[in-house]
């Protein structure tokens, strides 16, 4: 299966020429406020992050664990809106030269209008979207709009996903595949093991796109484990945890330990 | 996954990828059970020996006379074991859980009725059980929490979001995405991703099937109108399903009007104009949400109706106008409940009292040879604290103060 070409896939492949494993991080826009979101992005880019997920907060983040869940509700309490998220995302994509994706839940797209949402993503330089509660069977409008604008709809492989389903998801994706290292929600521990390696080998064999691995990746050891098994390591909740414990200033040193 | 479970534009299955095989398994088990006449037989047998099926219908003689209009009948779902229609769904899902070979059940609960029913089912079938309940609801429904814990369930107070039903549903899903291998999520209402709306309605259809026969037997004809309260919508789907094809029977769904239209403090998704179509908690329906799609806080005197969404099947029936939707305010609901208690000796739950309030408003405008049927979805034992507060009963207050004092001085073990 060939995928329509996307900027995202091209830039991941170009970056992989220089590095054996890329690092993707995740922030919740507007948490704790939009100014801090900007600062965190700046620090992350300077620390060597290769691509980033910007989460537009939603009141019912079903697939997220306690850390990101709290970040979503705090952002909303502090007045985050979809409009402000787009505005800040646009500043981010203009200032920083790495690929950015939106991560959010389907209702945000649905209420904005799927076509309008996707069109605006392209306009402000967002390169792809992760929508964890939108399986391809429910998302034809979204998939069509993403293809029309040559943006990457990123789908998720899980340890419960049978191989034929992986191939189906691969056929409906562009950019890369996001594989979760274990069951459950974001932000819990993962025991990286032989079983994980076998699973990642199955993931790799089921897609011709670059493979990102997330859920429970939080240390240099976890990142090193993924070297040779994946193209991108995803650190999500842990950076938010670091920010909560040490303030925004703690993020950069933390990222540096991961890529050292 | 099959792209099914749509009722015109409502429904669907907007689920995280990790749950796709789990939903496939559930749908297969459900369809096989539905095709197996022995399953329904086993279900009816269980409900007639463990719960109280068939539940009777009762004529409200005194209130019919007082209101001077239509003859009022009540379907007595309060007589189910655990005191509400919730048992119908839970016992069915319990049998299905056994069929799937799972050993643990989880559930969300608002008023606590579904939690108690699930804990009961788990105790009977020997399943481990975890119940997610909004912290706000734990605070107002302590008696139900007490019984759940007595039955061996772990009750987890959910402190996220608005700390009510929707947040309990989110937490139950977060548990499920981790523990799906041995765990069934016994969703309590006709909402959520496919096949839950259809499956829960199927188990609850026992109410409507019985009620239709009983009304024909008792009155020789079908009722002119059927009333049911609507939170998620399972008791309404249950009783309405018996009359769906009888187009001469008007079906009336009564939502929580809370503090009234225009106050923003209610849970009326279909009767008022505040809700819009959205996708959350795995399905598409009318939600009380803002323009961005963020869910709004809801309000109702009854925890069980305090919910942002509504069954996709009912949204569909709203659009086709097969069901008329109204809302009853907190004040009218408490008054209707007191009236029913005082004049009929029935104690409808605050949820069910919404249906009574609307029926009492309409019955006087109908003729004496017409009949109406109200679904009394549950009884109000659990509501004793809320109701005593709402009517500001001085003797109850005194009792609680004395009781608290006795705990403080350690007189009571």
Mean pLDDT of chain B, rounded to whole units? Answer: 95
The chain-level mean pLDDT of chain A equals: 95
Helical percentage of chain A: 40-55%
Number of domains of chain A: 1
Tell me the number of helical segments of chain B per DSSP (H or I, 4 or more residues long).
15
Short description:
By secondary structure, chain A is α/β, with parallel strands linked by helices.
Could you name the key traits of this structure?
heterodimer; A: 260 residues; alpha/beta; 9-stranded parallel β-sheet; 48% helix; globular; B: 413 residues; Rossmann fold; 6-stranded mixed β-sheet; 4-stranded parallel β-sheet; 15 helices
Commentary on this structure:
The complex is a heterodimer of chains A (260) and B (413). Chain A has 260 residues and is of the alpha/beta class. Chain A has a single domain, classed as TIM Barrel (Alpha-Beta Barrel), CATH 3.20.20.70. Chain A has 12 helices and 9 strands. Chain A has a 9-stranded parallel sheet with strand order 5-4-3-2-1-9-8-7-6. In chain A, β4, α7 and β5 (152-154) form a beta-alpha-beta unit. In chain A, α2 runs parallel beside α4 and α2 runs parallel beside α12 (251-259). The longest helix of chain A has 14 residues, at 34-47. The N and C termini of chain A lie far apart (36 Å). The model of chain A has no long low-confidence stretch (mean pLDDT 95). Chain B folds into 2 domains: 7-48 and 85-196, Rossmann fold (3-Layer(aba) Sandwich); 52-83 and 204-389, Rossmann fold, CATH 3.40.50. Chain B has 413 residues and is α/β, with parallel strands linked by helices. Chain B has helices spanning 20-35, 37-49, 61-67, 86-100, 113-125, 135-140, 142-150, 165-179, 196-219, 234-241, 312-319, 330-344, 350-362, 384-390, 394-408; strands spanning 6-7, 10-11, 57-59, 71-76, 104-109, 128-134, 154-158, 183-185, 225-229, 250-258, 276-280, 283-287, 323-329, 371-376. In chain B, α10 (234-241) links the parallel β9 (225-229) and β10. In chain B, α12 packs across α13. Chain B is globular, with a radius of gyration of 20 Å. The longest helix of chain B is centred in the middle third of the chain and has 24 residues, at 196-219. Chain B has 15 helices and 14 strands.
């Amino acid at each position: 299966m060939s995928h329509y070409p996307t900027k995202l896939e091209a830039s991941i492949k170009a970056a992989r020429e220089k590095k054996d494993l890329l690092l993707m991080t995740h922030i919740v826009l507007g948490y704790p406020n939009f100014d801090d979101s900007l600062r965190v992005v700046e620090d992350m880019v300077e620390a060597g992050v290769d691509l980033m997920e910007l989460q537009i907060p939603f009141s019912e983040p079903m697939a997220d664990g306690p850390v990101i869940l709290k970040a979503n509700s705090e952002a909303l309490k502090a007045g985050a809106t979809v409009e402000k998220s787009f505005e800040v995302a646009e500043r981010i994509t203009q200032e920083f030269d790495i690929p950015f994706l939106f991560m959010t839940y389907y209702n945000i797209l649905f209420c904005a209008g799927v076509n309008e949402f996707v069109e605006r993503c392209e306009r402000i330089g967002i390169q792809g979207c992760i929508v964890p509660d939108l399986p391809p069977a429910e998302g034809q409008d979204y998939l069509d709009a993403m293809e029309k604008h040559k943006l990457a709809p990123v789908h998720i492989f899980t340890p419960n996903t049978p191989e034929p389903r992986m191939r189906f998801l691969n056929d409906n994706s562009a950019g890369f595949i996001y594989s979760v290292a274990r069951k459950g929600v974001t932000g819990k521990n993962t025991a990286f093991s032989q079983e994980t390696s076998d699973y990642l080998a199955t993931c790799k064999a089921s897609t011709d796109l670059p493979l990102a691995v997330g859920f429970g990746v939080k240390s240099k050891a976890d990142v090193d484990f993924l070297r040779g098994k994946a193209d991108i390591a995803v650190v999500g909740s842990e950076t938010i945890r670091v920010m909560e414990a040490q303030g925004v200033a703690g993020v950069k040193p933390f990222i540096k330990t991961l890529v050292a | 996954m099959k792209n099914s479970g749509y009722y015109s534009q409502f429904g669907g299955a907007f689920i995280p990828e990790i749950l796709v095989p789990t939903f496939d398994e559930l749908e297969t088990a459900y369809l096989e059970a539905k095709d197996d006449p022995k399953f329904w037989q086993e279900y009816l047998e269980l409900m007639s020996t463990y719960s109280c099926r068939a539940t009777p219908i009762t004529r409200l003689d005194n209130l019919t006379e007082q209101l001077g209009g239509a003859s009022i009948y009540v379907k007595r779902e309060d007589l189910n074991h655990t005191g509400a229609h919730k048992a119908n769904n839970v016992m069915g899902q319990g049998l299905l859980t056994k069929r799937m070979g799972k050993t643990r059940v989880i559930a969300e609960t608002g008023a606590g009725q579904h939690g108690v029913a699930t804990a009961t089912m788990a105790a009977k079938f020997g399943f481990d059980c975890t119940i997610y309940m909004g912290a706000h609801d734990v605070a107002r429904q302590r008696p139900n929490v007490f019984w759940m814990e007595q039955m061996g369930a772990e009750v987890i107070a959910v402190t996220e979001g608005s700390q009510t039903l929707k947040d309990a549903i989110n937490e139950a899903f977060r548990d499920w995405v981790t523990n799906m291998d041995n765990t069934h999520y016994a969703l309590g209402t006709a909402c959520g991703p496919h096949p839950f709306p259809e499956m829960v309605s199927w188990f609850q259809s026992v109410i409507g099937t019985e009620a239709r026969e009983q009304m024909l037997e008792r009155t020789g004809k079908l009722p002119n109108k059927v009333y049911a309260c609507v939170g998620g919508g399972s008791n309404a789907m249950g009783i309405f399903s018996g009359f769906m094809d009888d187009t001469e029977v008007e079906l009336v769904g009564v939502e929580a009007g809370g503090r009234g239209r225009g106050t923003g403090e209610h849970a009326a998704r279909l009767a008022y104009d505040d809700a819009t179509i959205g996708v959350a908690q795995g399905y598409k329906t009318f939600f009380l949400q803002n323009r961005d799609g963020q869910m709004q806080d809801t309000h109702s005197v009854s925890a069980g109706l305090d919910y942002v969404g509504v069954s996709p099947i009912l949204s569909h029936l709203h659009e086709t106008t097969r069901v008329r939707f109204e809302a009853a305010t907190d004040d009218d609901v408490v008054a209707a409940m007191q009236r029913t208690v005082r004049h009929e000796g029935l104690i409808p739950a605050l949820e069910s009292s919404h249906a009574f309030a609307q029926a009492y408003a309409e019955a006087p405008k109908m003729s004496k040879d017409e009949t109406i049927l109200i679904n009394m979805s549950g009884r109000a034992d659990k509501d004793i604290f809320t109701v005593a507060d709402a009517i500001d009963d001085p003797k109850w207050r005194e009792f609680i103060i004395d009781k608290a004092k006795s705990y403080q001085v350690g007189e009571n073990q």
